[in-house]
Amino acid sequence: MYLLLIIFFLSFLNSCGTISKLTSGISSQFSETFSKKKEEEPLLEELLKKAEKNFIKGNYDLAYEYYKEIRDKYPGTPQAIFAELRMADSKFWNEEYLEAIALYEEFEKFYPNNEAIPYVIYQIGTCYYKMRKSYDKDQTYAEKAISAYKRLIQNFPNSPYNLEAEKRINELRELLAQHELYIAKFYYKIKYYRGAYQRLLYILNTYPETYTAKEAQKLVLTYYQKALLETQKILEGEKKDFWGEKVP
C-alpha cells in the first residue's frame, strides 16, 4: 500500500516538474558552494604564503596579523589550525612570552589530540624558562617551567623534546636550590638561625642532587649549632620566637 502511494507521489511530482526543479536547485547550490571554495583557495594560499614569508624573515608582528586573518576567515580548515599555532609562535619569537603562553594553552584546549601538542607543551615550558629570574628573586616562572616540562615527559615519553626538557629541569632545580641557599644565608645574616637551618634542611631534602646541596651540607653543622643556641635563648626568654617552633 505504502509503495503504491510513494510511486504515485513521485509520479505526481515528476508530472509537475517538481523533481527536476529540486534536482536543479540542489545541483545549482552545490556548484555555487564548490565554486566559492575554488575561489577562496587561491586567496587562502596567498595569505599563508605572505604569513610564512614574514615569519621566516622575522617580521613577527606582520606575520601574526596574516595568521590571524587566516584563522578568522577560514575557521575549521587545516590552514586555520596551523595559523593558530603560528600565532603563538609569532608571539614567542617576538619575546612576548605571556601572550604566547595564552595562545599555546588555547591551542591545547581546543585541539587536545593534535599531533603538535608535545611541541605546544614544550613551548609553554620554554616561555616560562625564558622568563626565569636570577636566584635572588621570585622563582615562580622557574617552578612553572619545571611543571610544564614534567607534564611533557610524563604524557609524551617518546617526544623528541624530552631530552632538552630534562636538561632544563636540572638547570632550574639548581636555580631553585640557589634561591633557597640565598634565603638561608640572609636569615643567618640577620641572626634568625633556626630559619636559616631549616632552609638548609629543605635544600638537602628537596634538591639533594644539586651542587648547591653540597655547599649547603658544608654549612649544616655551623647553622645547627647556632640554631641550638637560639633555641636556648628562646626557652630562657631572652629572644622572641619569630618562627613559632621550640626546636630547630
Characteristics:
79% helix; 248 residues
Would you kindly provide a written description of the structure presented here, covering whatever features stand out?
The chain is mainly alpha-helical and 248 residues long. Helix content is 79%, strand content 0%. It has ten helices and no strands. The longest helix has 40 residues. The chain starts with a helix and ends in a 13-residue tail after the last helix. The N terminus is likely disordered.
Tell me the fraction of residues in β-strands, as a range.
under 5%
Cα separation of the termini:
95 Å
How many strands?
0
Number of helical regions: 10
Describe the sheet with the most strands: none
Radius of gyration: 32 Å
- In quaternary terms, these chains amount to single chain
State the helical fraction: over 70%
Structural class: mainly alpha
Provide the low-confidence segments as ranges: 1-39
List SSEs in N-to-C order.
Answer: HHHHHHHHHH
- Mean pLDDT reading: 86
Overall morphology: elongated
